[in-house]
Amino acid sequence: MARQLHQAGMTQAQLADKIPITRAAVSAWVNNRAEPRPETQRRIAEILGTDPASIYNRTDVAPKKPLQWHHRLAHKDGGREYGNAAAFAFDADLSALAREATQNSLDERYDSSKPVRVRYTLHELNGQHLDTFLEAVNWNELRGHYEQAAAAGQKVSHSLRAALDDLDERNSLVLLKVDDYNAAGLTGDEYGDGRFAAVVRRQLDSYKESGKQAGGSYGLGKVTLWATSRFSLVLMNSTLSEPHEGRTERRVIGRLDLPWREVDELAFAGPAWFGQRETDPDHEGVSRSWWADDQTVHDLHLERLTKEPGTSFLIVGAHDASGDTVQLPEMHEKLVKSLADNFWAAMIGGRDGGPLLEATVVTMRNGQTLVEERVDPHASHAALSRAFQAYLDGDTVEELTSGTQVARADVRLVVPPRRGEAGKKKGCDHDAVLLVTPAEEDDDEANRVVYMRGTRMTVTKKRPRDLPLGATRFHAVLLAGYATGRDSGDVALAEQFLRASEPPEHDDWEHTEELTSVYVRGALSRLREFRLEIDKAVRQLVGRRSTSKGEGPAALRELLKLDVYGATGSRGAQGVPTVRNISGHVDDTGAWNVRVDLKLPNADDPWLLTPVAKFDVRSGGRPAVDWKELIATENCRMEDGNLVIGAGVRSATFSGVTDPSTHPVQGSLARLVVDIQKARGGAV
Q1: Angle of the 155-170 helix axis to the 139-150 helix axis, nearest 10
Q2: Counting Cβ atoms within 10 Å, is residue 402 exposed (0-12), middle (13-18) or buried (19+)?
Q3: Kind and range of the H or E element at 531?
Q4: How far apart are the C-alpha atoms of 537 and 543, rounded to whole Å?
Q5: Alpha carbons 333 and 335: distance in angstroms, whole number
Q6: What is the pLDDT of residues 514-553, one digit of tens each?
Q7: CB of 654 within 8 A of CB of 643?
Q8: C-alpha dihedral over 94, 272, 143, 68, to 10 degrees?
Q9: Terminal-to-terminal C-alpha distance of the chain
Q10: Model-level pTM?
């Protein structure tokens, strides 16, 4: 009762006069010494403008007060901010937004048995739809502030001027709503510590209650929301996971970040908030969040699909500052790609549990849905998804022997002690997990390792160094910290260490101020050693080819290059031998063992062919190596090192073993090419 009277701006004495009743009776209700009678509850509901059920259930009433913009006055010491410096920490493009906003949603996952669901909705408004929205945000009041901020001649001012001109000329506006479900929501006090104040009131506050697996640590990720708005304006509607003021649904607030400006002879510092006027004497005149009704939420385009906890962020005037995308279809595609590239692993579940994340991108115009697309990691990153799925399901192997297998190796990360703990604690060893699976030969994204930790967001991609010649083309994933799915003590320490090594963009493990200030000397060396161990593990898994019969062509087709020199006449017209199947491996002596199955065209004359073994090198010619042994296996015979195949034979098989003493490099460090040449001396 006391809180509700405060929100209504009414004293106990004023309520007593309106009922009417004695002030002592109201005091008894406020202090829980008594309850009002049913008829009195109905009267209180009438005075406060709500229904009697709210009074009976002790649910806070949302008083109907006019909404206002509260602009922070300029600093009395003359200081000025011509923009939010934090906004320049990221590139203001849609990829950065999708990465940072989705990671924040994952960090606030509420029910660990269910995935977080994120929904990105691009919505273009024009005509009456635009007018209704602008009226709902009190645009006429804001326009004067925008005009003055745009005239300041600063970097941000030029962008604001262009945004205002485009709005006037095109009479069109793009909204981008970022919804999350099964997230904590903006809980907490209006001004005190909590999620709400961290997002709405503060900068560089990384408040993560759920946070041991949190991806962020700088409190900067939320700034991408404002950076993606041409007008630096974001509206929020949150469904809370825990009640505030007796309510959980439709907690609404808006925040605007403008540079210093003067309007009507008053100077303003920068930020402004959209909400109801605060009545608390300590914050009098400030705009606070309010419990909005359905119509207001509709007019502000802040509707939510379900009553699940989470928050909807509406970016007003969304754009891609990179200049790569202008039209809605391009913006839609870029959002889908960024979500797939950064969170494909979080969208995959195993036998023992579902995914951490589900993501959807929607495009609308004036309330009509044009496209709705669910992000599918198996479609966008098939090989990587296969690798991670195998890990979750326990289907990995120790060595690759086919084109669809997933090999696993543990990679040691030495976590150094923190400063002040060196004499008490020696850090720990953490076994990260490396997953490797073969890639298609024409895959441009092959031969990279995807690094991730925490909630499985991609941190970076790196090419391993010193890959051997002839190495299997591959896709690889490195899982560290909580991304391994384990929850032991070394996992927590590794997670903290790697998070401390990430810059604000969380896109690498490198030298940071936090790393050197928190950990003992040598912490950066531990990261470098970790990278070396990762590269070494990759080389061990892909450095040699070992393929079973029937799967050879997919994994080892580069072992054999077919070439028939000097083919003329009818034989040339009839075609040449082709490879039907191939397999090979390097044995303990370092020799290549190769088995080749040939398919031959129908010919009237016998074939006389010479198998020639060569090592494929990066530059220059391919050096030939000697055969230690050539064996005619099926439908052929060997004569003086040549392969003789009779007329009319349609298939043949031979095997060969190279002579290691003639290898220019170790057999496991090179790709073997087998040329099938016409034997010198003519036809048989």
Answers
A1: 130
A2: middle
A3: helix 523-542
A4: 10
A5: 5
A6: 999 999 989 999 999 999 999 999 999 987 444 443 344 3
A7: yes
A8: 120
A9: 107
A10: 0.72
